[in-house]
Amino acid sequence: AWFRQLLARLDEVMTHFEEEGNALETELGGKLYHTYGELHTELLYQEEIHHRGWYEHVAKIQSCLSVPLLKIGDNANSYKVNFHNSVTEVILESENCLRMGRKVPDLALLVILCKPKIYYAYEGVKALVARNLEIRKSIPQIFVNLIQSQTMKLDAAFLPCLSNISWTSLTIPQILDGIKNILDKVDMFCKEANDMKEARVDETLEVIG
User: GO cellular-component terms in the record (predicted)?
Assistant: First the structure.
């Protein structure tokens, strides 16, 4: 885009000189116009070279969309969203090229078409990952073993997103809904366990104390 911006600035300058009557008819004006023509041609050439290189970059974006939605996080039982920034870059650059009337690869057009789905998946899985961590942190230490069966359900729910569900999968909405349902159930179980702890265990400890 900066090629076009620079060309536009150069055109503004030349338009100003043209409006000054015979400014370009002088010897200096002629040299200026000649230099402008050479620079204009070179910028268009460099833009074309850059555009061809960008085509090659776009061809690699398919591998970024073929990875699983998640990867294992730094801490135990945590996950990271496995989303490559190149996807967003290609979307923005492709939309910009279309606005300028430039051709874009078919793959880029497909990615633009799938943009709502991709962003929906990104925001959805990011929220589920955050909620998973929040629920796990809320589990009292004394109930870790008791609730192990519930946390195993969480692990199982997220497993498809670590293996075979990629950013191009058609079943992403169903998978995310399934994870949300499991999170709701485990969250309810944990809250009931916490309520039991506060109502019985903590109360008993206060009496003993």
Answer: axonemal dynein complex
